[in-house]
Amino acid sequence: MRELPRKLVEKLPREFRVLYRQFLLRVVDLEALSVHADVPRFLGQFAGVLILINVFRTIGFLFFEVGNPSVDPASLITVIWQREQWLVSTMMLVTGLIAVVSWDAIFPDRRDAMVLGPLPVRPGMILAAKVAACAAVLGIALVSLATGMGIVLPLVAGSARLFAGYWFSMAAACVFVYGAVLAVQGLMALMLPRKMFLRLSAALQLAAFAWFVASYFLEPTLWNPGFVRVVAARGDLNVWPSYWFFAMEQQIAGAMPAEMRGIAMRAWIGLAVVVVGAGLSLVLCYLRTMKKTVEQPDLVPGRSRWRWTPRLRGSVETAVVRFTARGITRSRHHRVIYAFYWAIVFAITVTTLKTEAAGRWRLPVTQSYMMPTLTMMCLAVVGLRSVFALPVALNANWVLQVTQLNPSQLYIAGTRRALLLLSGAPVWGVAVLLGLGFRPLGHVAEHLLVLGLMGWILAELCLIGVGKIPFACSYLPGKTNIQYVFWAFVLIFFPVAMSLANEEMRVLGDPVRYGVMVATLAAIAVGLWAVNRRQARSAVLHYEELEPEVITTLGIGSWADSS
Residue 318, exposed/middle/buried by CB under 10 A (0-12, 13-18, 19+)? Predict the structure, then answer.
């Protein structure tokens, strides 16, 4: 049985197999991970996170819904519908994030044109290998996230058609989202000059991050089949693609209400349009834009206009903050990673606005305002700190190293200001705008003070033991571990934000207890600041991370002695 897949693979052209392996390692941006990143390990970690989510949801469904004797058959049908719609929506979100992270992976780039162009390799072979590599990553995501519920739901419902409808609609949702991104990119590449395409592509990449995450949180909740019928009859679900493919699943399973027939038709039409549009755009890009890719530069020159940037307390701190800000805006892989955190911040902001609008504004200050803003502060500060260690270019290390004429504490102070100005200050400003919809404003001001102190504490925690300038230090490969980052946020930052919001709710309106809380947070912040300032005086900035020397012995001497 194991020999059959191997024989089928060996029948593929040798050029395709070689290109497929290389392109599979380039689906994820290597520069976003490390200089010589272990991409298979990264894909395994990515699949591990999705598998854990899948296992938790499946076990919860079996123990709390199916195994609950109080759940009647009608309620069980409602639960099954909710799980199916949630899985379709989550699968579309994951696919959208994969499409954004692997933004340019499927289109021809300069390296492909310069390396593969002189070789006797047809453009069609390159395109097929890239499509197969991207499809493999999507397949990993699909199998990792959907396998558990994809087996359990048809067994519980006792329907083989539901099994076929589930897997076909999930795969169709993946193809729809990824193909839509490819169609938009290909259309831009064909119609625009390359310089303008590169400039707009970066902005579109950030917008896509925010769009996918915000759509996931803003789409209407499926309460029960009767609710879906009423809303579908009014046409309110026509704008949400996740409900299109949920209706497609119900249509294939033979359980679709008549009111959802038009929604299911949108899924079939959208899938056909996206497949044709993405296919045509890819073929035309490989036939028409590869020459343009070689002839036109990838670096977009800045516009010659007057610019003003504020000066801070010292020239060194100003230079570090400016270097950090420009490193984020000009570097694509830094921008992608940091945009992931800010996309979640944006989604939380939109969700909070949705709650305020549903309550017709002027809501009382509750945890629905405190906890999202605290979570946003954690994400912004920790997210910016996570991209500090990624170098913009190794040349910058040497330039800053030979021009280090000031004490190290000034550079570390600049790093602190960069964290506070580029992550904490924007979130604090967003919290101020969100707070305008809550009353009384005195409670809002008290929470804003606590939020500012929390941002200061997080910035100081991120600076403990830091002896680097942001984006100016090479780092060792293989350090990226998305499982640790994901579960650190779930198990540490989220509970901390929840506990702080609960404590803050108890002290609001009590000046004494609120004063004690503020004094405690201020003392922690000042204490961390003093420790970091003291360490910064004797810190030595380092620009290169070196592997520890490991001496490996063969044990010949001990063997000879024993003989």
Answer: middle
Q: What are the pLDDT tens digits along the chain (563 aa)?
A: 445 456 666 777 888 888 888 787 776 654 444 434 455 555 666 666 677 777 877 888 877 777 777 777 777 788 888 888 888 998 998 898 888 877 777 777 777 777 777 777 787 788 888 888 888 888 888 888 888 888 888 888 878 888 899 999 999 999 999 999 999 888 888 888 777 777 777 778 778 877 887 788 778 777 677 777 777 777 778 888 999 999 999 899 887 888 788 889 999 999 999 999 998 888 887 777 666 665 555 545 555 455 555 666 677 888 888 888 877 776 666 766 777 777 777 777 777 776 666 665 567 888 878 888 888 898 888 888 877 766 655 555 656 666 667 778 888 888 888 899 989 999 999 889 888 888 788 889 999 999 999 999 999 998 887 777 787 766 555 455 555 665 666 677 778 778 888 888 888 888 899 999 999 999 999 999 999 988 888 877 766 665 555 555 555 554 445 55
The model's pTM: 0.73
In the DSSP assignment, the letter for residue 470 is: T
Of the candidates 248, 207, 231, 228, the one whose C-alpha atom is nearest the C-alpha of residue 91 is: 248
Residue 524: exposure state from Cβ atoms within 10 A (0-12, 13-18, ≥19): middle
Question: Measured in whole angstroms, how far is the alpha carbon of residue 280 from the centre of its chain?
Answer: 28
Tell me the two tokens of residue 142: 């699909």
Locus of tokens 């995450």:
213
Q: What sections of 289-314 are H helices per DSSP?
A: 290-295
The two three-digit tokens of residue 284, written as one number: 């035309």
Looking up tokens 């193909």 gives 179
Angle of helix 261-288 versus helix 241-253 axis, rounded to 10:
120
Find out whether the peptide bond into 257 is cis, omega within 30 degrees of 0. Answer: no
Rounded Cα distance between 365 and 431, Å, is 12
Distance CA(118)–CA(121), nearest Å, equals: 8
Q: 260 near 106, Cβ under 8 Å? A: no
Burial of 96 (0-12, 13-18, 19+ CB in 10 A): buried
Distance CA(90)–CA(245), nearest Å, equals: 12
Residues 6+ apart with CB under 8 A from 488: none
**Which runs of consecutive H residues, i.e. helices, occur in 420-510?**
425-435, 441-462, 482-488, 494-507
| Nearest by Cα to 315 from 244, 400, 406 | 406
Q: Which residue has the tokens 């950030």?
A: 206
Residues ≥6 apart with Cβ < 8 Å to 138:
95, 98, 174, 178
For 32, counting Cβ atoms within 10 Å of its Cβ (0-12 exposed, 13-18 middle, 19+ buried), the class is: buried
